[in-house]
Write a structure and sequence with these properties.
This protein is an alpha/beta fold. The protein has helices at residues 19-29, 48-53, 70-82, 103-111, 143-150, 157-162, 185-194, 209-212, 223-227, 244-255, 261-264; strands spanning 4-10, 34-40, 58-62, 89-92, 97-99, 117-120, 140-142, 200-203, 213-215, 233-235. It has one domain (4-206): Spore Coat Polysaccharide Biosynthesis Protein SpsA, Chain A. Helix content is 33%, strand content 16%. The strands form three sheets. It has a five-stranded mixed beta sheet with strand order 3-2-1-4-7. Strands 5-10-9 form a three-stranded mixed beta sheet. A two-stranded parallel ribbon has the order 6-8. Strand 2, helix 2 and strand 3 (58-62) form a beta-alpha-beta unit.
């Protein structure tokens, strides 16, 4: 159903701290998939940290484009990378989100029709000013469809990022040069879909997120539910390094044992 997970991070923000546990979580529940990381950095692509990561995952390093916040670049870098794998079926996820079971995701993935882009939870935007947007989480399709949607003219990475400067077809959140708090790749996607002939499969979330997610907005962990696999996903507290003790139970669930911060949080061991 899915060949590859694509995630992204950048050099300058705390999001890279989650790389290790995101990899571990996906491999726990989907050991058959490959993991690809788009990393925005001015480090040499052969830097030691990338060599270390490449022992476990595919890593593509993209240069920092001047005039565009690095956080915004990282959001879009994953979509650029997702278009590089031809017929592989790709799923996109946020770098600070992990699965806590297989069944929910397998149900969503299996609903996708071949040759279409799967969106899960698009209904959350119905009857809102954001109607037409799609949650990026669990967006799934063949790689060539990501390219057709996001980069149909086969731009270089730098030109790809620059092409979204000043965009505002539906709202100002399409402008990649805007502040990170005011940029949304969901806004960019809405604009791109309005100009594309790609077809979609839509699947409702069909969960009570307040009960079925462990989420930074209402952080609470029921140990018995976690261990029995009744939670669907975890959206971590931020940053990982400052909230590690609060999240240690989830860490232990993923790794099967208690782990020290330096073994889990990417960057602390560098």
């Amino acid at each position: 159903m899915v060949d590859r997970l694509v995630i992204s991070a950048d050099e300058n923000t705390y999001f890279k701290e989650y790389i290790n546990i995101v990899y571990a979580a996906w491999k726990k529940f989907f050991p058959e998939i490959e993991v690809s990381l788009a990393f925005v950095s001015d480090r040499d692509p052969d830097d030691a940290i990338f060599k270390k990561l490449r022992k476990y995952m595919d890593v593509e390093v993209y240069p920092i484009v001047a005039g565009v916040p690095i956080e915004n670049q990282a959001k879009m870098a994953r979509h650029f990378l997702a278009g590089k794998y031809d017929k592989d079926v790709i799923t996109i996820e946020d770098i600070d989100t992990i699965p806590l079971q297989r069944d929910f995701f397998e149900d969503k993935f299996s609903a996708r029709k071949e040759g279409t882009i799967l969106f899960v939870g698009r209904e959350v935007y119905d009857n809102t000013p954001d109607k037409g947007k799609c949650p990026i989480s669990t967006m799934t399709a063949e790689s060539f469809l990501f390219k057709k949607c996001f980069n149909p003219t086969n731009l270089s990475y730098e030109d790809f990022i620059s092409s979204f400067i000043g965009s505002s077809k539906f709202d100002s959140k399409e402008n990649i040069a805007g502040p990170p708090s005011g940029f949304s790749d969901e806004s960019v996607l809405r604009s791109l879909l309005s100009e594309s002939d790609v077809t979609t499969t839509e699947k409702k979330r069909s969960v009570n997120i307040a009960q079925d997610w462990i989420d930074r907005s209402w952080w609470h962990v029921d140990s018995s539910r976690l261990k029995s696999g009744n939670y669907v996903t975890c959206n971590f507290l931020r940053p990982f390094s400052k909230n590690y003790q609060h999240m240690r139970e989830v860490v232990e669930f993923i790794y099967g044992q208690d782990k020290e911060k330096g073994d889990v949080i990417f960057g602390l061991e560098q």
